[in-house]
Design goal:
Largest sheet: 5 strands, antiparallel
Distance between the termini: 29 Å
Radius of gyration: 11 Å
Number of strands: 5
Structural class: mainly beta
Length: 75
C-alpha cells in the first residue's frame, strides 16, 4: 500500500450523489473515475456533502486497486 499523504495521491473530485440512509456518497474525478466515500471514511462527514461540491480525496494505492483514505472540502 502507498500512503495517501503524497501530493500525487491527492485528487479533486465532485460529488455526484449523496445517499445518507446508506452512509454513502459518490464523487467523480477529472479522469471520469467514480469514487465512493462511506460514513467510515475519515473526513468532514456525509452531512457536509452536497451534489456539485468539490472535495480533495486522499487515495490509498494498493497493487490492484485504490480507495479513498480520507477527504476534505475544497473552496
Amino acid at each position: 500500500m502507498v500512503s495517501c499523504d503524497t501530493p500525487a495521491n491527492l485528487v479533486p473530485a465532485v460529488v455526484t450523489e449523496v445517499l445518507p440512509k446508506f452512509g454513502l456518497a459518490y464523487l467523480e474525478d477529472g479522469q471520469g473515475r467514480t469514487w465512493a466515500v462511506t460514513r467510515a471514511t475519515k473526513g468532514a462527514g456525509l452531512d457536509s456533502m452536497a451534489p456539485g461540491q468539490t472535495f480533495e480525496l486522499a487515495l490509498e494505492l494498493h497493487t490492484a486497486f485504490s480507495v479513498v483514505g480520507r477527504y476534505r472540502p475544497l473552496p
